[in-house]
Amino acid sequence: MFKLIQWQWREYQDFHANKSNLLIHIFAVPANLAAQISAAWAALHANWLILALSLVMVAASIAVQGIGHKKERNPSIPFSSPWNALSRLMVEQWINFPRYVLSGAWWRAWKQA
Fold it and tell me: Over its length of 113 residues, how does the chain's per-residue pLDDT go in tens digits?
């Protein structure tokens, strides 16, 4: 897992430099995290409606981020398998994008875009 985090972080700014993509991510990633937390809560409490709505929100967030990535000069590296997709998406959502924002790199990219 640590290697994936480092690999993704190493060139993260190259795939997150377009102003539209940055704007999409600053809203879609927190929405995704909230939806994942909501889905976990709903599953634990057997609230199937909230679970379904939360999963739809997770999917919508990922889809919108995919649209944002298509606006980038450097296209994202394609996923090699379902496991690769899931692990890369989870690392981006929970670790590297929050790190990108908290380190000030998002703001620097925004100003340079």
Answer: 889 999 999 999 999 999 999 999 999 999 999 999 999 999 999 999 999 999 999 999 999 999 999 999 998 999 999 999 999 999 999 999 999 999 999 999 999 99
Which value, to the nearest 10 degrees, does the dihedral of the CA atoms of residues 70, 107, 87, 73 take? 20
The structural domains of the chain, with segments of one domain joined by +, span 21-72+81-112
Whether this model's pTM surpasses 0.90: yes
Per DSSP, the residues of the chain read -HHHHHHHHHTGGGGS--HHHHHHHHHHHHHHHHHHHHHHHHHHTT-HHHHHHHHHHHHHHHHHHHHHHTTSSSPPPPPSSHHHHHHHHHHIIIIIHHHHHHTTHHHHHHHH-
| The residue type at 82 | P
Amino acid at 90: M
State how far Cα 17 lies from the chain centre. 14
